[in-house]
Specification:
heterodimer, A: about 290 residues, Aldehyde Dehydrogenase, Chain A, domain 1, 5-stranded parallel sheet, B: alpha/beta, Aldehyde Dehydrogenase, Chain A, domain 2, 15 helices, 18 strands
């Protein structure tokens, strides 16, 4: 380092990532974020209900075009995110060590696992449809075909104690399958997630596909759970069983698909979680061209 | 036009005067002695009385199912489980006519439909899932997928035996045991199925049948089951989803719909008209995936409507047991008044009503096939599920407008597309937010084909390889 010892370091303002932009909370609020040993790290934006609604609107706007991209392109964009994260592995290891108190080499190992996880899902985008769907041999002269389709907009309460890898484990399968997401980052450890927004912003990921909020789950999650334009709710990061139950009950009002806390599974299970099957029928053969049973 | 002579079905099934609850392989009366009666909706005559399950009966049935799952059905090899299901499928085929007539009597639907659709498709469901029982490792859900345990199942009255088969066949194939509540107006074929389980020597407790109404269903949902599978209204589905929030119970829901049936200007019009008729008048319109919103392209709307009305004029409404009957009785007085009330709002809100000049029987619950034209998206008949033989006709100018209107509903169960252009079918099918899309056909069902909805039509699939996910711990 050739810097002068007395050079003032330029610190980063950690902001939200919504619709491809990095806004502060519309509420103007922020909250201090510390390391486990009590050292102040930064102030993070304290997202409000309105930020949640803005994020859902951005996610909804982005969903149809994102699902309409080719699976190959979605895979390349996820791979690009892995490339961008690899290039900044040192920075993320440092942020992760600060956030969790992990040793430097341990934190770097987690970042590397996160990079590899992105690569894993990048390779799934053009395969899960063949693996999960298929042609069905119905007992009649019909072509019948089933494909998994994205649910739409997924609200995710990200894991609290695994602020980068846990976040990517929740987000990657949801967006690999053409959903868009609104993510509430770890409440006490939001900084790696917010920096991950910068990785996504430089990965050709269209704005709005991933929206990252920092703040309190108890404040923002109820609004996301009740939001009529959200199709799925991931409660993986909700530690409080009472809050999880009330969020699930709120989600039931519009019959959202809910992933309860503590659920685990293979990557294919996670890809299935945020898809639903569409089955298309068409008559095959001249005998079947009549419209119906009458 | 030739008239048809009456052609009544001559087979009469042995219907008992009274049926009990089916718990642990035996018929028994309710602990509190409650009974109710089932009525023939085409005559309003009582058919039989049946025990009404209360909370104590639910506990007993769930306990029996738990014992059977842990001691017999779960440990049994898949191949042996499958053989029981094959046996059930065969018995259903053997007794098909008896079940078809019983279903028609208890439900009011035409014998033509129970004979050619309900019962054969129910048998197919058992035959199809029987074959899965020893092949679950190949279902793409892990090397050794485990059953969930005891399943509580609540089914509707529109396809009583078929919905029972959609629920019980996959649950049993996957190694679960079941407690099933048939609808209060249509318990007959479920109780005959219980007798058939005895005939098949199915181990006691594997299948338990608890007739009853909403309170019985709520007690079943609240009981110590591992999973709830429900088919019925969105309002009840929502209440169930709320009531199990925070528990470990799993849930699949197959709820209401307001399907769009889209007819483009390049459609095969005569086939489309058949499909429109099948889409909304099949089973008196008591179909969650009914094509209740006809979206027809403006340039062909007059032609389609003229041919549609001419076709509806030929539909025969009346005695469900007459083999020529197209449209039978409405299932209950309650459903009839709901249809009447919603249909009345159509006229009040400015839509134009049309009905054929058909005669209706004097007794029983009947509603003429009804077509509303000039319907706007804001009208109740365009938004709410009527669950009756009532079609709302809307028009569109561009394909984009058709898709936007089709998707403008909180439901997402099914949709229809009519066009001779293949690329337009695939374009539309990809954009329609629905679990099932019928292109140049409508209301097709098969055990090998997953069925289920999106959004407020619920979640989970029934049928096909994908349907197994609902009954395995994955």
């Amino acid at each position: 380092m050739s810097e002068h010892a007395d050079r003032l370091r330029v610190k980063k303002t950690y902001k939200l990532y919504v619709g491809g932009k990095f806004p502060r909370s519309e509420s103007g609020r922020s909250y201090p974020v510390s390391s486990p040993d009590g050292a102040e790290l930064a102030n993070a934006a304290l997202a409000s209900r309105k930020d949640g609604r803005d994020a859902v609107a951005a996610a909804r706007k982005a969903q149809r075009p994102w699902a309409g991209q080719t699976a190959y392109l979605r895979g390349q964009i996820l791979y690009r995110a892995a490339e961008m994260l690899e290039g900044r592995a040192g920075q993320f290891a440092e942020e992760l060590a600060d956030a969790t108190g992990a040793e430097a080499h341990e934190a770097l190992g987690t970042v590397e696992a996160a990079i590899d996880r992105l690569v894993h899902y990048a390779g799934w985008t053009d395969k899960y449809t063949s693996v999960l769907g298929g042609a069905n041999p119905v007992a009649g002269p019909y072509f019948n075909h089933t494909t998994p389709e994205p649910l739409g907009v997924i609200a995710i309460v990200a894991p609290q104690d695994d602020p980068l890898l846990g976040l990517i484990d929740a987000v990657a399968p949801a967006i690999a399958t053409g959903n868009t997401v609104v993510v509430l980052a770890s409440e006490a450890k939001p900084l790696p997630a917010l920096s991950f927004g910068e990785v996504l912003a430089t990965s050709d990921l269209p704005g709005g596909v991933v929206n990252l909020l920092s703040g309190k789950a108890a404040e923002v999650a109820p609004h996301l759970a009740a939001h009529a334009d959200v199709n799925g709710l991931d409660l993986g990061g909700v530690a409080d069983a009472g809050l999880a139950a009330s969020l699930e009950a709120a989600a039931a009002e519009t019959l959202k698909v809910v992933r309860r806390p503590g659920r685990t599974g293979t990557s294919l299970d996670l890809l299935r979680q945020w898809t639903e099957y569409k089955t298309v029928w068409h008559p095959a053969g001249m005998a079947a061209t009549a419209g119906g049973g009458y | 036009m030739f008239e048809y002579a009456p052609a009544p079905e001559s087979v009469r099934p042995q219907i008992k005067e009274h049926y009990g609850l089916f718990i642990d392989g035996e018929f028994t009366d309710a602990a509190d002695g409650a009974v109710f009666k089932s009525v023939n909706p085409s005559t309003e005559e009582a058919l039989f009385t049946v025990a009404e399950a209360g909370e104590a009966d639910v506990q007993a049935a769930v306990a029996a199912a738990r014992r059977a799952q842990e001691s017999v059905w779960g440990p049994m090899s898949g191949a042996e489980r499958g053989k029981y299901l094959f046996r059930i499928a065969r018995l259903l085929q053997e007794r098909a006519r008896e079940f078809a007539v019983a279903e028609s009597l208890d439900n009011g639907k035409p014998i033509k439909e129970t004979r050619d659709f309900d019962v054969p498709t129910a048998a197919q469901h058992f035959f199809y899932h029987a074959g899965w029982a020893d092949k679950l490792a190949y279902a793409g859900l892990g090397a050794d997928p485990r059953p969930l345990g005891v399943i509580g199942q609540v089914i509707p009255w529109n396809f009583p035996l078929l919905m029972l088969s959609w629920k019980i066949a996959p649950a049993l194939a996957c190694g679960n045991t079941v407690v099933l509540k048939p609808a209060e107006t249509t318990p007959l074929t479920a109780l005959m199925f219980a007798e058939l389980c005895q005939e098949a020597e199915l181990p006691p407790g594997v299948v338990n049948i608890l007739p009853g109404a909403g309170a019985t269903g709520a007690a079943l949902v609240d009981s110590a089951v591992d999973k709830v599978a429900f088919t019925g209204s969105t309002a009840v589905g929502r209440a169930i989803a709320k009531s199990i929030a925070g528990s470990k119970k799993k849930l699949t829901l197959e709820l209401g719909g307001k399907a769009a049936n889209i007819v483009f200007d390049d459609a095969p019009i005569d086939q489309a008209v058949e499909g429109i008729v099948n889409g909304i008048f099949f089973n008196q319109g008591h179909v969650c995936c009914a094509g209740s919103r006809l979206l027809v392209q403006e340039s062909v709307a007059d032609d389609v409507l003229e041919r549609l009305k001419a076709r509806v004029e030929t539909l025969r409404v009346g005695d469900p047991l007459d083999k020529n009957t197209d449209i039978g009785a409405i299932n209950s007085a309650e459903q009839l008044s709901r249809i009447q009330a919603l249909a009345a709002t159509g006229g009040d809100e400015g839509a134009e009503v049309w009905q054929p000049a058909c005669e209706l029987p004097e007794r029983g619950f009947w509603f003429r096939p009804t077509v509303f034209t000039g319907v706007q998206q804001s009208m109740r008949i365009a938004k709410e599920e009527i669950f009756g033989p009532v079609l709302s006709v809307l028009t569109f100018r561009t394909p984009d407008e058709a898709i936007a209107k089709a998707n403008n509903t909180p439901y997402g169960l099914s949709a229809g597309v009519w066009t001779e252009k293949g690329s337009k079918i695939l374009w539309a099918a990809e954009r329609l937010r629905a679990g099932v899309v019928w292109a140049n056909t409508f209301n097709q069902f098969d055990a090998a084909s997953p069925f289920g909805g999106l959004k407020e039509s619920g979640y989970g699939r029934e049928g096909g390889r994908q349907g197994l996910e609902a009954y395995l711990d994955v």
